[in-house]
Design goal:
Helix 1 crosses helix 4, helix 3 packs antiparallel against helix 4 and helix 3 crosses helix 6. It contains 6 helices and no strands. It is mainly α. Helix content is 81%, strand content 0%. The chain is globular and about 40 Å long. The protein folds into 2 domains: 51 residues, no CATH class; 74 residues, AhpD-like (Up-down Bundle).
Length: 126
């Protein structure tokens, strides 16, 4: 394993917890190179850059995924990740509200439905 992979896997696990495991399990056997690319580039290279902190990166990820509107499984992972690294439900909600301005109300509504489900699941697990 490369240092990039090791760093990326450490960042990924710290941020995403169990939600991330279910995501990587979906391509573990089918496309293992995809996991390696994800760990090395996204979580190894990009998430290790110093300018933004991990909370800011998670809020940016939520914003982008919500705007795309077709990434509900990844949105679940990143909303959980944001909560794992100290973002509040209010911050996540505010980011999703801002998405409505640039990506439209349907994208924001769909993302808010996902956020509400994540918030409820985490509350039920307490």
């Amino acid at each position: 394993m490369s240092d990039r992979y090791t760093q990326g896997l450490e960042n990924f696990r710290r941020i995403t917890g169990q939600a991330g495991k279910s995501l990587t399990d979906t391509f573990d056997k089918t496309a293992p190179d995809l996991e390696r690319y994800l760990m090395e580039f996204v979580f190894g290279d990009i998430y290790s850059r110093p300018t933004l902190d991990v909370k800011q990166r998670q809020l940016a990820a939520i914003s982008a995924l919500a705007a795309l509107g077709t990434c509900q499984p990844q949105l679940v992972v990143h909303i959980n990740g944001a909560l794992n690294v100290g973002c509040t439900e209010a911050e996540i909600t505010e980011i999703i509200l801002a998405v409505a301005v640039f990506a439209g109300f349907p994208a924001a509504i769909n993302a808010m439905v996902v956020a509400r489900q994540v918030f409820a699941e985490r509350e039920a697990a307490k």
